[in-house]
Amino acid sequence: MSLNSIREVNFDGLVGLTHNYSGLAHGNVASMSHGGLVSNPKEGALQGLAKMKSLMDAGYAQGVLPPQQRPDLGALRDLGFTGSDREMLARAAKQAPQLLRAVCSASSMWTANAGTITPSVDAPDGRVHFTPANLQSSFHRYLEPKTTGRVLQAIFRDEQHFAHHPVLPATPAFSDEGAANHTRLCGEYGEPGVHLFVYGRQAFSGGRNEPKRYPARQTLEASQAVARQHGLSDAQTVFAQQHPEAIDAGVFHNDVIAVGNGPVLLYHEMAFLDEERTLDELRAKMSTPLIPVRVPMEAVSMEDAVASYLFNSQLLSNPDGTMTLVVPSECQEREAVWNTIQNFILAGNNPIGEVIVKDVKQSMRNGGGPACLRLRVVLTEAERAALTGRVLLNDTLYSDLTAWVNRHYRDRLATDDLADPQLATEVLTALDELTQLLNIGSVYPFQQG
């Protein structure tokens, strides 16, 4: 098998029809600060598709994952609301408006939280391994894993190539936020890699060095459990604690403060509680020399890092050995950040040779940048051929998805609109059409009776 036939596919989440600004994510500064604004779901979905299309046109492998069914009427029913859909929505809006906003969240668009993936080259059984994240830290995200699991199993169905694991117990001890706290470092994608799991707290022996302002969403115990599920050995894993001061500054996931690709780790000096130990262990376990790109505090403050999402950029490998950094347009709006990109990162002794700026403002206002929107899956040529459905982006699929968005999405959504029963009907009509367009079968609750 040629190493050149093994590629990383970025599976981006489609921005959902109920994309709104409810400020649900405690500890996510952008989400909290934009709560109550009027959103534009159509613009958000088209911005996401435009990013996917531009990367596809540049030669990167690009996939698509569907949004979830929202509002989650089943969740309202489970929580005691009765009557017709219209009656439940009206009662929830009157009695528990925050709950209604939660069951309407379009947060599944940030597929970096969908789960954790181990490529077949690293797994003992030679299959790609998937564990959906339980996302138990917040109610609106806790609603996602069942559908996420069905979607992943529908697309990665072939048991010869793909292995699916159960969601970890949805308890604080095993709080798991998926690939947003996981980075695989390696030489070429097809070479054995080392898996860097970053956690915010220890559940069973914690209490020390934990954040004080915002919750730590990932536990060491969850990261260790996922590694065990996937058959990863001690020699293949590094577990590092995220700096608690970074979490308290709004770095709710590691991918807001660090991004890795191949042998490159681009990170802020406040990313890890024990920076030196983390780098030393990576160097000892990697078969390829680690290339750390450390951004110091004097270059980019924590405030600028969180506001710009510099480290929530996509870092992509090119055939010539260079890398491209895909940053949100907010990076251009912060002078210190843009100067650091131009005069430090691009000018440094590392493979990053190009920066591409993308407008994903609809997502950014809710606290998700380019890296939040994608789930990285390293696949061989045979594994790509084994995918079920029509989920690898090409010009025809892009055109079909754009037309689908233009047919079904609203261009204005206020939080008061979430109680509109017509919106719920519009969502079901659109999603039913989408599953046919993507040819992934019945993955939504309403399609399963």
Q: Any overview of this molecule?
A:
By secondary structure, the protein is an alpha/beta fold. It has a single domain (5-69, 104-445), classed as Succinylarginine dihydrolase (L-arginine/glycine Amidinotransferase, Chain A), CATH 3.75.10.20. 33% of the residues lie in helices and 17% in strands. The protein is built from 16 helices and 15 strands. The protein has helices spanning 29-33, 41-57, 73-78, 85-95, 97-103, 139-142, 145-155, 220-229, 244-248, 275-285, 302-308, 335-345, 361-364, 381-385, 395-408, 421-438; strands at 7-13, 61-65, 115-118, 128-132, 162-164, 182-185, 194-199, 237-241, 258-261, 264-268, 291-295, 314-317, 323-328, 352-358, 374-379. The N and C termini lie far apart (44 Å).
- In CATH, the homologous superfamily goes by the name Succinylarginine dihydrolase
Indicate the percent of residues in helices.
Answer: 25-40%
Strand arrangement within the widest β-sheet reads 2-1-15
Tally of strands: 15
N-to-C span: 44 Å
Oligomer: single chain
How large is the radius of gyration? Answer: 21 Å
Largest sheet: 3 strands, mixed
Number of helices, counting only DSSP H or I runs of 4 residues or more: 16
CATH hierarchy class name: Alpha Beta
Structural class: alpha/beta
Q: Which spans have pLDDT < 50 for at least 5 consecutive residues?
A: none
**Might you state the CATH topology name?**
L-arginine/glycine Amidinotransferase, Chain A
Average of per-residue pLDDT values: 93
- What is the percentage of strand-forming residues? 15-25%
CATH architecture level-2 label: 5-stranded Propeller
